[in-house]
Amino acid sequence: MYFIFAFGLISCNQEKESKANTELLYFDIKGYFQKESIRLKKTNPLILKEVDIDGVKETKKLNINDWEKEFSIFANADINKASWKGSFKIQKLNDGLIYTSSSKKIPVKSVQIDSFENKVKKIEIIISNKNILYTSGDTLLYYPDSLYLVKKHQKIKLLKEKKYQVKEIF
Q: b vs e for 73-84, b when ≥16 Cβ sit within 10 Å of the residue's Cβ?
């Protein structure tokens, strides 16, 4: 009898813990871009896509078939990872929030969410990776229904620095 009662009590506590772990501490970047992927798949906008690799540019008009893949670089910058919990300072702005981390172990250094009337107007993410052989930095910008921009530079020791930019205009 006591065994059944103890087992039931433990089960309830585990259920509460699992529910508590699903609460997000910071803005849900991954969830936001999943919703945007679904929304844009339905509206299927014509996009002007510009790619610039080390100064060589190419421009195309197209419809994006896989928005989840297109937004994966943004979704991968999710700051709600369990191991990063409490690693970001939160600064409130009149029109949004800025999350910053100075941890060398966390590549996402800054996330700025600008909003108006509870609607996202701009997301800016700064990512930086450094080690003995490699340095890279990304700037990700997203303006819903207007523009998406990814700027990246990387430098591998003994090799020339590479820069690229992808811009999509709605």
A: bbbebbbbeeeb
